[in-house]
Amino acid sequence: MDTLLILAIYAVYKMKTEIFTILLLILTLNSAYAQVDCQKAKQQAKLDFDKSEYSFHSEEFLPIENTYLYVLREYYKIYWYFTDSLGYYNCYDNEMTELLKTKHGDNFLNRARIIADSLETSLNWKKDPQFPGGDLVLFKYISSGLVKRGIKKEDLKINLYIRFIVNSTGKVSNPEILRGINKDIDEKVITIINQMPNWIPGYLYGKPTRRWYVMPIRFEY
Questions:
Q1: Which residues 6+ apart lie within 8 Å of 201 measured at CB?
Q2: Is the separation of the CB atoms in 78 and 101 below 8 Å?
Q3: What is the DSSP annotation of 98-144?
Q4: Which residue among 117, 178, 215, 216 sits deepest, i.e. has the most Cβ atoms within 10 Å of its Cβ?
Q5: Are 125 and 208 in contact (CB under 8 A)?
Q6: What pTM does this model have?
Q7: 18-43 pLDDT per residue, tens
Q8: What span, in angstroms and rounded, lies between the C-alpha atoms of 65 and 79?
Q9: Which helix (H) or strand (E) holds 195?
Q10: If you write DSSP's letter for every residue of 31-59 in order, what string do you get?
């Protein structure tokens, strides 16, 4: 075999060996760093537990108004935080979970889910605001109010999108047209919204609450 070819093969073999060694070193260092980081996370969890500062972590998810998170907070004083980096917090949460089991029992997370499921099915736990009589009555209320103000029925064939606040007592305020029909009709709709009777307020976690409400208004007769 040609000497130059032998040298070339040897050089390639040596290069591959060196690359493999470097990769192995990087993996070893990363593993060692991860173990140290995990130990720090567990130690921090113990410190927080001793201070009665309990928390879990995850990537962000919907809905934010989550009954399970509410139960953890209100029943167990456990707060939930969102993070983009889970490596550290996986170790933290695992340690915190084991510590909390010594306080609340091994099945406390399952109990929290059972409580959350029960609350979700209770009356007025989470509910959007509602016009008395429902949407159809609302549409008729607004369209008839426009007709009384000189707007012709044939001008009301386009959906209008509006948002407004319904506070905890059902009072409506701050109406805003998101997609209107024309300036005249839009202004009259704003006037009618401001003068409408109180709504049934929205509920969150069993209590009436102030909510923005966004809706399309379909003028049907």
A1: 129, 166, 167, 168, 169, 170, 208, 209, 211
A2: no
A3: HHHHHHH-TTHHHHHHHHHHHHHTSTTSEE--B-TT-HHHHHHHHHH
A4: 215
A5: no
A6: 0.71
A7: 555 555 555 554 554 557 789 999 99
A8: 13
A9: helix 183-195
A10: HHHHHHHHHHHHHHHHHHHHTT-EEEEES
